[in-house]
Design a protein that fits this description.
The chain is an alpha+beta fold and about 425 residues long. It contains 10 helices and 19 strands. It is globular and about 80 Å long.
Length: about 425
């Protein structure tokens, strides 16, 4: 049978149909999808009419024996994503320092137009990101916008042109994009006293095939909603989270603490940053939620799960979550991006598929090779470090040379 229809002899021009053998041809392993594209050929057999053997397919004899076998292309296993993002000023702030980006990396499109809001995950994947800026005045708004633009532009160039489209290389390029964004923001602020110290959080999700790679800096968050339950995929890089990890504070105490907004890392304030990568295998109907602390400071994870489960459309879920945060005071900017995954390439969730926080370790050899390739260029140099070198290191070298010459002079005289 094929597609549920039994094979039967066909007749044409008054004689029994000729039988053909259907051969399933599977590609080699190692593609993005485990099953890969599937083709089958129809090949001629010499048996006619009722003499067909078990497994032979009978079709009308419209093809000559000397003709090449016809090829029928079956659909590729695919993953579709429905995604939306929304940001809101909140109830107390006078400007919005949050931003988000939704991008189809395969087709190089970043927007909320219908072609991006619903698209197939291609061989170069997709990017979703939320950033929460800081720095006062327009500095925070600038930092988050720069981060989103720099991360997307690097992936749209370096990753799309990379001959290696493996999952590990994708994770490396994602981390690399955040590192470049950090250096550029730091360099920019170092040359402009009015925005010195500006920075931004960054929670970036890269989807490739059936896997989700998270890159985390700061305390914006990512949740995965599966079977109506929310699991936090990121860990806050904050003082209170550090105290919770050390056993000096409970989760409940951390939520009420006045120090909950003190973060230990951000893109921009320092020349170097530690980016934490985590990985998750996607399952059918999984929902990814990225959000700034303007949401999580007022709406808990289980409440997020209920809203997302009750609102299949990501746009509706985004609006309801933002309304909930505003109804509870809205003390900060609120940003939410939601992506729902479907498609026949995804397995149905089972008992052994509970999502969890899982750190992704890159191969050290590959990591070192890429680090050497992307050394800091002139545009990435830290102006403050250059000034320090000119003011202190060069004079010290000259002084050392003079002392050495004096010592040599007295040594030769003796």
């Amino acid at each position: 049978m094929l597609d549920g229809a039994p094979w039967r002899p066909a007749t044409s021009r008054g004689r029994a149909g000729r039988c053909w053998t259907v051969s399933l041809i599977f590609p080699r392993e190692g593609g993005i999808f485990a099953d890969g594209p599937t083709r089958f050929h129809v090949r001629a057999r010499s048996t006619l009419g009722n003499g067909q053997r078990r497994g032979d397919a009978c079709v009308a004899p419209t093809i000559n024996d000397n003709d090449p076998p016809p090829e029928i292309q079956l659909p590729h296993p695919s993953i579709q994503v429905d995604v939306f993002g929304k940001t809101d000023l909140g109830q107390t702030r006078d400007h919005n320092e949050d931003t988000f980006i939704v991008a189809d990396l395969t087709r190089d499109k970043a927007s909320l137009l219908p072609e991006v809001r619903h698209h197939d995950i291609g061989d170069r994947g997709s990017l979703f990101m939320v950033a929460d800026g800081m720095g006062g005045a327009a500095a925070g708004e600038l930092a988050s916008a720069m981060a989103a633009d720099l991360v997307h532009s690097h992936l749209a160039s370096a990753w799309r042109e990379d001959p290696d489209n493996s999952l590990e290389q994708f994770a490396l390029r994602l981390r690399e994009a955040l590192e470049i964004a950090n250096r550029r923001i730091h360099s920019y602020a170092g040359q402009r006293p009015e925005v010195k110290g500006m920075g931004t959080t960054a929670t970036a999700a890269g989807v490739l095939g059936t896997h989700l790679i998270m890159a985390q800096v700061g305390d914006s968050r990512a949740y995965l909603i599966r079977n109506g339950e929310a699991v936090q995929l990121t860990r806050d890089q904050s003082l209170t989270q550090r105290l919770v990890d050390a056993g000096e504070m409970t989760e409940e105490e951390a939520e009420r603490s006045e120090r909950r907004n003190i973060i230990l890392q951000a893109l921009g304030p320092e020349p170097n940053v530690v980016i934490e990568l985590t990985i998750q295998e996607l399952r059918l109907n999984d929902v990814l939620v990225l959000c700034s602390d303007g949401l999580t400071g007022n709406v808990k994870g289980d409440e997020i799960a209920k809203v997302v489960t009750a609102n299949p459309e990501p746009a509706d879920a985004c609006s309801e979550l933002i309304s909930m945060a505003n109804d509870r005071g809205g003390p900060d900017n609120i940003t939410v991006a939601i992506a729902r995954f479907t498609g026949d390439a995804l397995k149905a969730p089972g008992r052994d598929s509970e999502p969890s926080y899982l750190v992704y370790q890159l191969d050290e050899a590959l990591d070192d090779a890429e680090t050497e390739e992307y050394q800091i260029g002139e545009d990435d140099q830290d102006p403050a470090a250059i000034r320090d070198f000119q003011r202190f290191i060069i004079p010290a070298m000259i002084a050392g040379l003079v002392l050495a010459m004096v010592a040599f002079y007295f040594a030769t005289r003796a």
